[in-house]
Amino acid sequence: MKRTTWSLGDIKIMEKVIEAQNLKKTYITKKKEEGFLNGIKSLLKTEYIHIEALKGISLDVFDGESLAFIGPNGAGKSTMIKILTGILYPTSGNVSVLGLTPWKDRAKLAYQIGVVFGQRSQLWYHLPPIDSFNLFSKIYELERETYRTRLNELIEIFEIKEYINVPVRKLSLGERMRCEIALALLHSPKILFLDEPTIGLDVVAKSKMRDFIRRISEKDHVTVFLSSHDTIDIESLSRRVVIINNGIIVYEGDINMLKRYVRKKIVNLKFKEAKRDFDIKGINVLETKDYGARLEINLEEISQDEAVGEIIKKGQILDITIEDPPLEEIIKIIYEEKGKLET
Predict the structure, then answer these.
(1) Residues contacting residue 135 through CB under 8 Å, at least 6 positions apart
(2) Mind listing the pLDDT tens digit for each residue in 147-203?
(3) CATH annotation of 263-323
């Protein structure tokens, strides 16, 4: 199936690259209770626990799309990515990635996707990153000139030249993650799966990584499937967001539509004179300094315009900025409204 979208005045036809229908995954594990006697009992009679990680997920992802697949820990995000990349197979349901069944055609699929797991390394621990790059170039059957050009580009973008010949075990977490992401992009994948990709990266490295991912997504129509707790990653890389909790989808739509769940605004102020009196209904003082303040507007009690009008009455303002609350807070509201948030 195809989807028609408008972009900069031009019609673009987008092909489905990922199709998941009623996807379920149940883990079966032995029940273990504390204590020596209970351990003996479990040897005589084994009991099993069924854990439903995915409870019927249906999802389409289109060519060149940037999708954020987010949720709390244990929601089923990593399970979904592992099924889509062929690491796990589902209990039931159908999945197609680039026309292939991931767990049946894993070798073929590997040539067309890149994967970064923030908690799992693809680099050889005792060898320098360059050895892993050279090995992967052979695995992906890259031509020598193509490989060298691509490698040099990645080395420059992620600034890994100074430690590409240093054993991985001696690298910091941030240095290793830069190499991990570069390795995943080495063979120019059509789909890039990112599971907590920015763990350990400094602010500059994160910014450069996002810029590069945006560039390859827009220029080369690389599909980005992102799972992250970093709200800046989500907001800067994704246009559509899918929120999962307890193995089911609780929200799906344009990331800007999340704004309708915004119940608060954060205001940063700088006054010409020292001010400390902000006794205004619907406004909570988060922080004050001699000439500055950080306030929270409760939009259920007062509108943004009314709040700003009242704040202006407090004194001459030199600077004012208004921000949305962190994305985590917006997600929490969605969970609570749908009755899915566990407390």
Answers:
(1) 124
(2) 999 999 889 888 899 999 999 999 987 788 889 888 999 999 999 998 887 776 777
(3) 3.30.70
Q: Where are the beta strands (DSSP E) in 31-169?
A: 48-62, 66-70, 92-97, 113-117
Contact 276, 288 (CB under 8 A): yes
How many CA atoms lie less than 13 Å away from 327 in the CB half-sphere?
20
Q: What is the CA radius of gyration of the chain?
A: 24
Q: Which two tokens stand for residue 236?
A: 């800067």
In angstroms, how far is CA 136 from the centroid of its own chain?
Answer: 25
Domain boundaries, the chain: 63-259, 263-323
Q: What are phi and psi of 58, to 5 degrees?
A: -120, 125
User: What architecture is the 63-259 domain classified under in CATH?
Assistant: 3-Layer(aba) Sandwich (3.40)
What is the reported pTM? 0.75
What span, in angstroms and rounded, lies between the C-alpha atoms of 11 and 44? 66
Give Cα separations from 116 to 74, 139, 177 (angstroms).
Answer: 19, 17, 9
Residues in the chain, overall count? 343
